[in-house]
Specification:
4 copies of one chain form a homotetramer. The first copy, chain A, has 141 residues and is α+β, with helices and mostly antiparallel strands. Chain A has a single domain, classed as Thiol Ester Dehydrase, Chain A (Roll). Chain A is built from 3 helices and 5 strands, in the order βααββββα. Chain A has a 5-stranded antiparallel sheet with strand order 1-3-4-5-2. Chain A is elongated, with a radius of gyration of 16 Å. The two termini of chain A are 18 Å apart. Strand 2 of chain A pairs antiparallel with strand 2 of chain B.
């Protein structure tokens, strides 16, 4: 399944809940947690992996989500601050699984966790492509 | 796991993509598909199951999502129309799994599918409660 | 200010509030009303004016919002249906003002109204351009 | 129009664009700028004025937006950081006008500006009420 080492580094990004994330139940709307993960990933790709989403785009490549799973434990609310922890869980020839955990600050109690599967896609053809060696290297940390 | 019959009815709701659903990749943003499912469920609870979300609220009850899984097949785009098909996949003592499929219209090609797990919650205590018999009956169709 | 006739046609589009539009105050979030106007405009450009946003894009043109004003009267809520009425209020050499009214259905009581100013922009240069004659003609109804 | 002093303090909050704020034109979606203002205001009410939105809610009071105006100058894009500057522009018996400016960082070039009018509302009756003296005092800085 994976030709990558067992243990990949975990990276953390801190974010604040925005008032427009709150829904009719007075909690962060269920679909916003993946937006937090997305935001954290954009930051971490550039800061921690050394290859920003823009650099992928410049090479004609994009990461398309093929599936996502979220396990909701404790909802975040108005004014909450969180840490979003992400890591590569596995790498295959054409994609990877990114695991994540969102903890409420300052208690660091788990709010939700899950994973997203991504395929690397040639933006011109729209087809999945093999992950180039230099990309694989950068992501195998 | 489930004390409910094997086969539950599937219900359909048609929706249009809104321009503000489109993201930087020119497709419906990945987290909006669950919002379509949520919108379809609100309609179907009232129209097809005969018990609206408001009636749950009036009884001091709410459905809290405990997990969700989405499998993305073909992204929807600007101006697209879709059908959202939902059904009860299983009922347990305190919750249920709702399966869904979103197909693009008019071709009815699959855009995404998945499921959401819900727990019935007492809105005052915030704790999960057993599904009342009359609710179980309405949902066992 | 305007070289266009005084009276332009008004067009209507009906929309439903989506559950994810509701905010912490149990009403449609204040910024979503302009999203309803945007959705109605996309429909009306194609259906009523005979030139869709896509056709503008294909000609290398885009409409960029330069200002917006919204007057909030009565908030919409969960499950509400509305009619969004839009019209050209004035056309200048390089832009136009679109007036709008959103009424709650079936009572047609006013929920909000206002206007959006747009500039026609060359998508390559990013600069505002004069509205081509054929476009002006289509919009002067 | 206003029984308040001419000059009120301006407060600043720095925010980051989130990837889900970007729309089909690769810029921050036009309706998100007011969400940034709202987020900045929530922070500033607590940090700078010494009375959080929650404290208003606890007293049975809420601020309802009655109108908004946004003038768009230069769109923000993916990865951008901004400063949101807000201030009380005028106070009337039952409401206030909040002015705002959003500047892109680090250049501090203007992205947009405008104002929001608010009415103080009794959350039980839904009617506008006179601003209590202690609130007026806190906001007259």
């Amino acid at each position: 399944m994976s030709d990558a080492p067992d243990i990949f580094a975990k990276f953390e990004t801190e974010l604040d809940v925005r008032p427009d994330d709150i829904d009719l139940y007075q909690h962060v709307h269920s679909t916003r947690y993946l937006d937090y993960v997305l935001a954290a990933r954009f930051t971490q790709m550039e800061r921690d992996y050394g290859m920003s989403m823009q650099e992928f785009t410049d090479r004609g490549l994009g990461w398309f989500m093929t599936s996502s799973q979220v396990n909701y434990k404790r909802p975040l609310g108005l004014g909450d601050r969180m840490v979003v922890r992400c890591w590569i869980e596995s790498i295959t020839e054409r994609g990877c699984r990114v695991g994540f955990e969102i903890d409420r600050l300052p208690t660091r109690k788990r709010s939700c966790d899950g994973f997203c599967d991504y395929s690397l896609v040639d933006l011109t053809s729209g087809r999945s492509v093999a992950i180039p060696d230099d990309v694989r290297k950068k992501y195998s940390i």
